[in-house]
Amino acid sequence: MSNYHVPVMLQECMDGLNMRPGAVFVDCTMGGGGHFLHMASLVGATGTVIGVDRDADAIAEVTAKSSGFDARVIIERTPFSGFPEVLKKYEISGIDGVLMDLGVSSHQFDEGSRGFSYRADSHLDMRMDTRNPLTAEIIINEYSEEQITEILRDYGEVQNPRRMAKLLVDTRSHKSIRTTGELVAVLNEEYGFLKNGVLSKVFQGFRIAVNGELDELKSALESSVEWMNPGGRLVVMSYHSLEDRIVKQFIREKTVDCICPPHFPQCRCDTKQTLKLVSRKPIEATAREIEQNVRARSAKLRVAERL
Ligand SMILES: C[S@@+](CC[C@H](N)C(=O)[O-])C[C@H]1O[C@@H](n2cnc3c(N)ncnc32)[C@H](O)[C@@H]1O
Fold first, then answer.
1. What tens digit of pLDDT does each residue of 89-126 get?
2. CB within 6 Å of ligand 1 — which residues?
3. Where in the chain is the domain with CATH 1.10.150.170?
């Protein structure tokens, strides 16, 4: 396997998807193809796998590895909220499972020039899709103090986000903050050396804002339910609590017939149960996997089935 990305909980994801010959599966987050190419090998000559990613590197990586499968293999560069457009383009009317392995790949993280990591000094970019104009540099240098506070609070879960946002706005009033190194230096100068955990949260916050990650997730979850055949499986792996909360909440709302507050005498919502839980608790990686791949440590896998 190349060192682009080591797939997390590969077997657990395949089991969750209920992989079988002849079925149609969508991988929303192809990355290096660790899950996707395995899916392609399991659906056989009569099956179809559709892989999407918005990162050009992922598309190039998987395209290069995708020949020689009996299955129909479709690869498209698009944000995963747009996967229904891909299905329409290829005249696919229903799918049997959707996989989302959220966040950034090891390749994106390790590629210092992309700006995802505080460990390398590079342009403050953080775009998964370099066709989009919005970068972290624009957010940090042009967004209002209030907007930066919200990003740090809501997406980074940083303590005292107001203080940090004010620091950035004060700093940029006399010198722009253009690189990851400059951002880290500004923070370290104010706070003393910040722990890596805090820097991770700051970077996570800006990354989520640059890539609109939470809105993307909400949209793709809804589309998955719309496009899945009865018995189809929704399999989502998240690496931080913000995403996992959205997935958990989404599945909870779809597994009941009514979401009215308990004090309503009568149901006033149009909710109809569309999913059933496959595993009540999130599935986590084994100690053995975590030992071999530290990325697996925070992974939470949730599985639900379309009714
Ligand atoms: C954790 S990696 C997936 C790794 C992959 N499962 C593997 O085994 O190689 C996440 C991938 O999803 C992509 N991604 C994240 N959010 C996306 C979105 N909203 N639309 C399309 N691709 C997205 C990233 O570019 C990245 O390549």
1. 999 999 999 999 999 999 999 998 999 999 999 999 99
2. 5, 7, 29, 31-35, 52-55, 58, 79-80, 101, 103-105, 128, 216
3. 118-211
